[in-house]
From TrEMBL:
Pfam families: APH
Native source organism of the sequence: Roseivirga misakiensis
Descriptive protein name: Aminoglycoside phosphotransferase domain-containing protein
Lineage: Bacteria, Pseudomonadati, Bacteroidota, Cytophagia, Cytophagales
Domain annotation Aminoglycoside phosphotransferase: ranges: 20-243
Annotated coiled-coil segments of the chain: none
């Protein structure tokens, strides 16, 4: 990994690189754990097929980190004062690795959910002081469900990989939930605020302490930009209320856990409520439905298009993910009816 070693040196890390190893399970970027002497770092190579406006990430990161918050891990700069370095192998970024922290892949305890919720709630409160119009939307229309449904329609029409017959019934089931998009449009018309958001608040984008599962850091800041708190709470909700991983193929194992949702909401509001409007608080649960449905649409679209966006580790994984998310959405809807 000559290019990776070169990138590490560009961030003024002194000493020989002793070890480079692939790290994590992210869908998009390539991440490496780096050891230099007694210190450890995370080196990421951005997927520029996804992040076609990588200069926006640099701009947003600079504006966010100049606010000096303990919410974020240390990011290193090059001699030129940039958070990213380019060589022939791509665009790289270096952060400190926290050996005493972990990134939970599934919510195994209420303590983990409470900690992550407080952390992301603190992020929401912190970014309320930032001027959202100074930040770029890194991926245009990233959480625009109407656009994602249009992409699905186009994929079904083109059928580039001959997969549409296989998913015909399932895709109809997905499309029949379009009313979720209409509800979000109505909320925006009613004044749902645009605020600075993380926009990718999966549970594993938080770091918790190995010792007691307390919140440590918010990570993966590539998508920070304009959005809605319903996106951030919603993505965290969809990755914590279920007891199954996103790629679990046995849908009978996917459950909605009410106690996990209540813990999530209570602890998120503990830190975020001072800056939220009533309209936002009243529709946090809908945020979970919205994000879960949108991910089902995106996974299905990617499967039909030949798995070109999300990394996969086994055949039909994106279809499994889509079916998983639709099952979770049905469980959310059932819980909503139960408490109504």
């Amino acid at each position: 990994m000559k290019a990776a070693k070169e990138a590490v040196k560009a961030f003024n890390i002194k000493g020989a690189v002793d070890e480079i190893a692939l790290f994590g399970s992210g869908h998009i970027n390539d991440t490496y754990r780096i050891r230099v002497g007694g210190d450890e770092y995370l080196l990421q190579r951005l997927n520029e097929n996804v992040f076609t406006n990588a200069h926006y990430i640099e701009h947003n990161l600079d504006h966010l980190l100049r606010q000096k918050s303990s919410l974020f891990v240390d990011h290193f700069k090059t001699d030129g004062g940039a958070y990213h370095y380019r060589n022939e192998s791509g665009l790289w970024r270096l952060t400190l690795f926290l050996a005493d922290a972990y990134s939970p892949q599934t919510a195994d305890s209420l303590a983990e959910v409470a900690a992550a919720a407080e952390g992301f709630g603190s992020f929401t409160a912190f970014t309320d002081t930032c001027q959202v119009d100074q930040f770029h939307e890194v991926i245009p229309r990233f959480h625009d469900l109407e656009w994602r449904l249009t992409q699905l329609d186009q994929a079904l029409k083109s059928d580039l990989f001959g997969r549409c017959n296989e998913v015909r019934d399932f895709s109809s089931k997905v499309i029949n939930n379009r009313a979720i998009s209409n509800k979000m449009k109505a909320l925006k018309a009613d004044g749902l605020p645009v605020r600075l958001c993380h926009n990718d608040t999966k549970l594993n984008n938080s770091l918790l302490a190995k010792s007691d599962a307390s919140f440590q850091k918010v990570i993966d800041l590539d998508t920070v930009g304009p959005g809605s708190v319903l996106y951030d709470f919603g993505d965290l909700m969809r990755t914590t209320v279920s007891n199954a991983a996103e790629n679990e193929s046995d849908t009978s194992k996917i459950q909605f856990r009410p106690e996990f949702f209540e813990t999530l909401k209570e602890n998120f509001l503990k830190t975020a409520s001072p800056v939220l409007k009533n309209l936002e608080i009243e529709h946090l649960f809908f945020g979970g439905q919205y994000m879960t449905y949108m991910m089902a649409v995106r996974f299905l679209t990617d499967y039909i298009n030949g798995d070109i966006y999300f990394k996969t580790t086994f055949q039909k994984e994106n279809l499994v993910r889509a079916q998983n998310q639709m099952t979770l959405l049905e469980k959310m809807n059932a819980y909503e009816r139960e408490i109504s």
